[in-house]
């Protein structure tokens, strides 16, 4: 049954990515929504799940520290990429293509998150079918958003549609690989919770410091702000009613 759910996540994520490619002329609005969606996933999905999985083994202060580490790690990586790109621009008249490295890293982060989604589905079904379906519904509902976010990370960093499609395929396959991996090995719930805490920090930085500012470039802030708030509300509603 978990494999059927994994297939459904592939379809859901892929459709979300195709939606972003099709409407790339409205990218600033989609980026605004994506920013809210990423922040919503961090606050309403990853963080509560991390606290729940580690409640018996680690205190809340340690979880908060891991979130900060995740945030700082992405901050440092982003600054390194940005400095490299700006340095290249000093020597060329055209924009440096190395800015796409940041987009690839962001897409990679989302793909790893999707892998952990699938991993979580596999573990949940091992515990009980009821828990498995609860996790599966939550993953399916924000899988569409994951596809949008992955494509946006590439397009906004000067990547082309071909590159965006490649990363979309990787992100769409990731949850299925996560489910399959649980057939061969397993990790403790507390360890998975610690990993999710780090990804909470990564996603908070990705949404607040990358997607939100980018969505406002050369566009009025009113509608992009509305879309960001809408993204947060939609993800909260989806996760709240799914669980």
Your description of this structure?
The protein is mainly alpha-helical and 243 residues long. It has one domain (2-88, 97-242). The protein contains eight helices and no strands. The protein has helices at 2-22, 27-54, 60-89, 100-127, 129-155, 161-181, 189-216, 221-242. It is globular, with a radius of gyration of 18 Å. It starts with a helix and ends with a helix.
Report the sheet-strand fraction.
under 5%
Counting H and I runs of at least 4 residues, what is the number of helices?
A: 8
Low-confidence stretches: 83-98
Order of helices and strands: HHHHHHHH
How would you state the average pLDDT, rounded? 77
How much helix, percentage-wise, in residues?
over 70%
State the end-to-end distance: 19 Å
Count of distinct structural domains: 1
According to DSSP, the number of beta strands is 0
Please outline the major beta sheet: none
InterPro entries: ZIP
GO molecular function, one term: zinc ion transmembrane transporter activity
Transmembrane segments: 30-48, 60-77, 123-144, 165-185, 191-208, 220-242
Keywords: Cell membrane, Membrane, Transmembrane, Transmembrane helix, Zinc
